[in-house]
Amino acid sequence: MGHDLLAIVPELMLVATGVVIMLIDPLLPTDGRRGLSWLGIFACITAALSTWLASGEEFTAFNNSIALDKYSVFFKILLIVVAAMAMLLSEKHLMLKKRLLGDYYALILFTTVGMIIMAESIDLITFFVGLELMALSTYLLAGFFRYEERSIEAALKYFLGGAFASNFLLFGMALLYGLAGSTNFKEIGDVVKLGPVPSGPLAIAVVLVLAGFAFKVSAVPFHNWAPDVYQGSPTPAAAFLSVGPKIAGFAAILKFFTMILGSQHDTWVPLMIALSIATMLVGSTMALLQRDLKRMLAFSSIGHVGYLLLAVVATGQSGRTLGMASILFYLAAYAFMNMGAFGILVFLENNRRGFKDSLDDMTGIGRRYPWAAALMALFMLSLTGVPPTAGFVAKFYLFSAVVNSGFAWLAVTGALFSLVSAFFYLRVIVYMYMREPEGEPGLALEGKSWDLNLGLGVAAAGVLLLGVLPSPILTSAQDAVVKLLGN
Amino acid sequence: MYDFQEQIGFPILTALTFLPALGGLAILLMRGRPNLYKGVALAVTGVNFLLSLVMIGWFDRYSADMQFVEKVPWIESLGISYHMGVDGISVLLIMLTALLSLIIIPASWNYIKERELQFFAAFLFLETGMIGVFCARDLFLFYVFWEVMLIPMYFIIGVWGGPRRIYAAIKFFLFTFAGSLLMLVAIVAIAYLARANEFAAPVFDMDLLEQSVFSYQVQLLAFLAFFIAFAVKVPMWPLHTWLPDAHVEAPTAGSVILAGVMLKVGGYGMLRLCIPLFPDAVVVVAPWILVFSLIAIVYGALVSLVQKDLKKLVAYSSVSHMGFVTAGIFALNIVGIEGGIMVMFSHGLLTGALFLMVGFLYERLHTREIADMGGLAGPFPVMAGFLLFFTLASLGLPGLSGFVGEFLSLVGLFTYSKAMAAVASLGIILAAAYLLWMFQRVMFTGLRDEKWYKVPDYSLREIVSLAPLGFLAIWAGVYPNTFLQLIEPPATRLSEKMAPYMAEGGSAVERIFASLGGLF
C-alpha cells in the first residue's frame, strides 16, 4: 500500500493543494487571493520535480491499474507544465473580470490530475475515472464567467457533448471487457491479438472508442463544440482547454491503439486515415473563414489534431517508435505554441479596451505592442511550421514518421493542408504589421502583469528551444515509447 | 574535403552566416538611435563582405571538394548535423550576396521613412538565411535556411512595400511555401530511403546522399518535388507569376536582393541537389526543362517589350535572363553549366544595379511609368551614363559580364541541340530591343517637364552604391577567368557525373519524344 501511494505522490500533491486553495479561499480578502495562483504554481513545480526525480524507477501500482514508466513521466511533466502556464496566464485576467476565485486554480489542478491519470492508467476503469475527473472540471472551467451568457453556453455545450462522448467510450470499453474478460490494457491486447475474438463486436468497440476519443480531441465529425467552447470560455481557460485535454486524449489514444488494438492495425487504419483527412480538411478550410481569432485558433487546433491522427496511422508495424515518438514531440510543441497564441489574446484583452479577439482588432498591434506582436508572429509561424521553431521540427518529425511507414501520399496531403493553414496564420501577421489601424487606437487598460509576461516568455522559450535544440525532448519522446511497445 | 581547422583556423562559414543575424539582434535593441543602428548595419555587412573576400583568398580554386568544412552533430537521433562547406559555386554566390547586402544599406539610407530599425534588422536576418543556404551541406539545415530566408522577405515586401504590398507578400509566401513543402516531403523520403537498414538513422548529409542510388521512380518523384521548389524561386515559366507583383511592390532594396540573390538560390539548388542526387531522372526530364527555359527566355523578353512600368520591365527581363541559367545548366555539359553559373553571377550584379537605379529614379520623379519620363539625360547626365552602361551590360555587350555567361550557356545549349540554341539566341536579340527602346524612351526623346532640372543628379552615395557593381561587371566581362576558375572544378565534376547518363545526340524533337518514353 505504501508502495502504491508512493507512485502517486505528485498527484496527491496537486489534489491536496487544490483542496487547500478551496479551503483558504473564502477566508482571504479579494486582494489576498492574488497569491493563490503562486501556491498552485509552486505545487506544479514540486510535482514536476518529484516526477522527474522518481523517473528512474518503473513499476505498476494499484493492482496493475497505473503504470509508472517513461511514457507516463513524459506526459505527466508536459501536463504539469501546461497547467502551470495556464495559471500564469490567468491571474490578471480573472482579476480584471472580477472573478478572481481560488476555485479556478483548484479546477485547473483537478483537471491536471485527471489528465495525468488518463495518461498513466493501464486499466479501463482507472482510465475512465481519470477521464471523468478531467471532463467535469473542464466543464466548470468553461463556464467560469457565469455572468456571461457565452461562457454558460460554452459550458453547457461542452457538458452535453462530453457526456455523450463519455458514454460512447464507456460502451466501447464495456464491449472490450466483454470480449476479453479483463479491464487491463495488456491482457485485453493479448486476447485481441491471440484471439479468437468475434470480429463484429470488436469492430463496434473500435468505432465506439474512436468516436469517444474523437470528441475529446475534437476530431471531425465530433469537432463542432470546439469553436463555441473556446470562444465562450474565459480566454486563459480556453488556452488550457485547447491544449491539456488534447494531450491527455492522445496519450490515451496511443495506448488504446497500440497496446489494445495494435494487432488490429490493418482494420482501423482506413478509418483513422479517413478521420485524419476529414479533420485536416475541415480544420484548415473552416479556419480560413473565421474573423474571430479564438474561433480561428479552435479550427486551427482541429487541423493540428488531423496531423496528429496522421501520425497515429503511422504506428503500424514498420517504424512504430517513430510514429509514436513523433506524436509525443508534436504534442509538446503544440502545447507551447498554442498556449502562447491564446496567451497573446489574453494579453491584448487585458491591455486594450474594446479588444474583442477579432482580426480587425489586431490592426496596428505591431506598433502599439511590439513585443506582443513579435511573440504572436513567432507563435503563428510556429503553428504554420516554419523553422527555426518548434512547430517546424514537430511537423518535420511527424511527416518523417508518415513517410517512413509507407504513406508518402498522406504526408503530401498533410503538406498541402499546411499550405492552406499558412494563409490564415499569416493573415494575423498581415493585420498586425501590414495594415494601418483605422480610427483611434483602443484605450489602454491597467493590464500589466508579470505573471502573464512570464507565461508568455515560457511559451516563447519553449517554441524556440524545441525548434533549435530539439534533441533532448526528441530523445525522451523516443525513450518514452520504446518501453510501451516492449509490453 | 578540407577541414576549416587546417585551412583557415576558425569557422569562417559560421561567422559569415551568423554575424548578420547577431547584428540584426543587436539592432533590435537600439530603438530610437537611427544613426547608430544604420551604422551598425553598414559595419556588419561591411565586415561580412570582407570576410567573404578572406574566404576567397584562402579558397583552393583548383579543387572541386568542399572546403572550410564544419561538422557538428545537431539532432543525433535523426542523423542531422550542423554541416557546412563550400565549393567554387557557393563561394561566388556568397561573395555576390555579401556585396549586394552591403550595397543596399547605403542605398536605403534615406529611402525608408518608417520602422527603419526593423527594416535594417530584417535585411540582416535575410543575409543569414541566404548565406546559410549556400553553405549548408545537410539537407535539414539547408531547408531551415531556405525557410529562414523566406520570412524576412515576406515582411520586407509586406511592411515596406507599395500599395498592393499585402497581396504581393502573401502571393510570394504561398508560392514559395507550396514548393518548399513538397520539397520537405521529398527530403524526408530520400533521407529514409538512403538508410543502410531499417534501424539506422535517416541520412540528411549531402555527401552521403550523393553516393546513394535511388530507384528511377523515387528519383523522378523526388526530382520533381525539388525542382518545383527551385523553379518557383528561379522563377521559371509558368511559375513566375509571383515575381512581377513582388518586384513592383517591394522596396528598392528588397527588389535588389530578390533579383540579385534569391532567384539564384533556385539555380543553386538545381546544381547542388537536383543534378547530383537524381542523375537518372535529370537526363529524362532535361529536354522538357530546356523547352520551358526557352519559353521563359522568349516569353519574358516579349512581355518586357510591352511593359509600361520600368520596374516591371526589369522584373520580366529577369524571367528571360534566368531562362538562360536553366537552359545552360540543363544542357548538362561543362560549358553550359559554367555559362548558367556565370549568368547567375552577372544577372545578380546587373539586375541588382538596374533595380537600384529604378529606385533612385523613383525617389526623384515619384513615378515609374515610362510614359512619364523622356529626355532625362538632360537633367541627369550621370544617371544616364550609369543606365547606359548597365543596359548595355544587360543586353550582352561583349566586354561586359552579361555577354560571357549568355555566350557560354548558348554554346552549351548548342552542343546539346542546335535548334534550341537558335531559339534561345532570339532572347538576346529581343533583350537588345526592349532594353535599348527603354533607354531611348527614358533618357532621350523630348523632356516632359523642365522642373526636373531643379532635381539634383546622382549623389556620391548613389554613385558609390553602383560603382562596385559596374566594376565587377567590367572585370567579369574583360577577364572572366578569375570567376570561371572558381566554378570550373565543381562544374567539371557535375558534367562528369552526368556524362555516363547522356544519350547519343539527336535532334531536339527526337530527344523530347525519347524522354516521353522515360516519363511513362
Spatial strand sequence of the major β-sheet of chain A: 1-2
Number of helical regions of chain A: 20
Low-confidence segments of chain A: none
The major beta sheet of chain A can be summarized as: 2 strands, antiparallel
User: Which sequence of SSEs, written as H and E, runs from N to C of chain B?
Assistant: HHHEEHHHHHHHHHHHHHHHHH
Number of domains of chain B: 2
* Range of strand content of chain A: under 5%
The Cα radius of gyration of chain B reads: 22 Å
Category by helix and strand content of chain B:
mainly alpha
Mean pLDDT reading of chain B:
88
Number of strands of chain B: 2
Distance between the termini of chain B: 39 Å
Task: Report the structural category of chain A.
Answer: mainly alpha
Oligomer: heterodimer
Low-confidence stretches of chain B: none
- Biggest sheet, spatial arrangement of strands of chain B: 1-2
Distance between the termini of chain A: 24 Å
Describe the structure.
The complex is a heterodimer of chains A (487) and B (520). Chain A has 487 residues and is mostly helical. Chain A has helices spanning 2-7, 9-24, 36-53, 70-96, 102-120, 124-142, 149-180, 185-194, 199-216, 225-232, 235-260, 265-289, 293-313, 320-351, 365-368, 370-384, 390-404, 408-434, 450-468, 471-486; strands at residues 59-61, 66-68. Chain A has a two-stranded antiparallel ribbon. Chain B has helices at 4-7, 12-28, 34-58, 88-107, 116-135, 139-160, 165-193, 206-211, 216-233, 242-249, 252-277, 279-305, 310-329, 334-365, 381-394, 401-416, 418-443, 460-478, 481-498, 508-519; strands at residues 67-75, 80-86. With 520 residues, chain B is mainly alpha-helical. In chain B, strand 1 (67-75) and strand 2 (80-86) form a beta hairpin. Chain B has 20 helices and 2 strands. The two termini of chain B are 39 Å apart. A two-stranded antiparallel sheet of chain B has the order 1-2. The chains are: A mainly alpha (487), B mainly alpha (520). Chain A binds chain B through residues 318-319, 381, 386-388, 392, 396-397, 399-400, 403-404, 408, 411-412, 415-416, 418-419, 422-423, 426, 429-430, 433-435, 470-471, 474-475, 478, and chain B through 74-78, 140, 143-144, 147-148, 150-151, 154-155, 158-159, 165-166, 169-170, 173-174, 177-178, 181-182, 184-185, 188-189, 191-192, 198, 202.
